[in-house]
Amino acid sequence: MYDVREWRHVFKLDPSKPIxxxxxxxxxxxxxxxxxxxxxxxxxxxxxxxxxxxxxRYTVPCVLEVSNIDSVTPGFDLFFIPTVLNSTxxxxxxxxxxxxxxxxxxxxxxxxxxxxxxxxxxxxxxAAKQTDAIANLTEDDIVAYAMMAEKMFHxxxxxxxxxxxxxxxxxxxxxxDALQHTKLFYGGGIQTIEQAKEMAAFxxxxxxxxxxxxxxxxxxxxxxxxx
Length: 227
Ligand SMILES: CC(C)=CCC/C(C)=C/CC/C(C)=C/CC/C(C)=C/CC/C(C)=C/CC/C(C)=C/CC/C(C)=C/COP(=O)(O)OP(=O)(O)O
Ligand SMILES: O=P(O)(O)OC[C@@H](O)CO
Ligand SMILES: [Mg+2]
What we know:
Sn-glycerol 1-phosphate binds at residues 12, 159-164, 189, 209-210. With 227 residues, this protein is α/β, with parallel strands linked by helices. The chain is 34% helix and 19% strand. It is built from nine helices and eight strands. It has helices at 21-28, 45-55, 95-104, 126-131, 139-152, 169-178, 193-200, 211-214, 216-221; strands at 9-13, 34-37, 62-65, 78-84, 113-120, 157-161, 183-187, 205-208. An eight-stranded parallel barrel has the order 1-2-3-4-5-6-7-8, surrounded by four helices. Helix 5 (139-152) packs parallel to helix 6. It is globular, with a radius of gyration of 16 Å. Bound molecules: ligand L4TTDIOY, SN-glycerol-1-phosphate (1GP) and magnesium ion. Magnesium ion (MG) binds next to loops.
């Protein structure tokens, strides 16, 4: 199912972290709507190819979330391109994208590419540091970014990113209220089914990442929000 508009739950696998065949099978056969391959640092073509080939043993949709141009490869069902709306550097909003499209634009299949408007809200996470994001935002600031994503830029996805830290459900609720068409992804710190349910009450799609590596049994239980 490649229609992200129907998704509720995804796992995000980090190519720079090892995962056993057994754990990978449990993730891919869990009933999640998709597996996203992506990370902030240490993402190389070799690691992406290896993980893609391993996920491809299963029928679950497989998405590459592009974090650097050198690790992009054909073979995914979809490509997600982040643009960090609250970055202070044009590099992470349109800069790298301009370079990439100058080089590859003519051969890109736009039907398989979705742009994600990121709003990074954990000032200590790697992605916030790398992109010089202003993560210390009020609810009004965040809602304004969500409205920009939908009303100004018509982005298909707005991503509330708390990577590594459980976020504020009130913020997620307010952002959801501001969106009509753009799908709301929430990611960050989901470790338990209770947290998954709390965020899935507002977000269209919840993203579970690090807990795969910390406590896979608990991570797998989060898929139950789909029931
Ligand atoms: C050949 C072929 C098939 C081509 C396909 C066409 C295609 C898709 C081309 C690419 C075109 C394009 C426009 C590319 C953009 C290039 C680019 C580098 C954009 C910048 C992306 C960006 C803003 C990255 C910043 C970091 C970020 C937001 C990463 C997202 C992932 C994330 C936050 C992960 C969480 O971090 P993690 O690593 O897990 O952290 P911890 O270890 O602390 O958990
Ligand atoms: O790793 P966690 O904290 O689960 O966050 C998931 C995802 O939003 C990271 O990009
Ligand atoms: Mg991670």
